[in-house]
What we know:
The protein is α+β, with helices and mostly antiparallel strands. It has helices spanning 3-8, 60-72, 139-148, and strands at residues 18-28, 31-36, 47-48, 51-53, 75-87, 95-107, 117-121.
Amino acid sequence: xxxxxxxxxxxxxxxxxxxxxxxxxxxxxxxxxxxxxxxxxxxxxxxxxxxxxxxxxxxxxxxxxxxxxxxxxxxxxxxxxxxxxxxxxxxxxxxxxxxxxxxxxxxxxxxxxxxxxxxxxxxxxxxxxxxxxxxxxxxxxxxxxxxxxx
Length: 150
């Protein structure tokens, strides 16, 4: 193989960089608030934990508070870590890494500003929804949490 052929060959192990995202599991008793992606969003009509991307240098909790204020007009306290999911397929330049935390409502009433709909779901209803791929690995953990009903 010539030097020119080597330079034009694709890399053997090309990996998209990670895009870090946080999601909030707003749990009240045996229900969790979930959001449906709007028609204008990638993965339209899929359900997800509301949240969003971390800004450079931003901590998970700070990003989650900011995103839930922007998306749902609520102030939350960030609680324990619930789980992590990834989706290498549905973003053209990045692998999405989603970290989900339990959150508790401090003030406000959840109102969708960007999403098409909000819905309170129980553990029994989770499997009936079409979920975004990055959220799916966290669902068994959410079910366990909701079944405790604390």
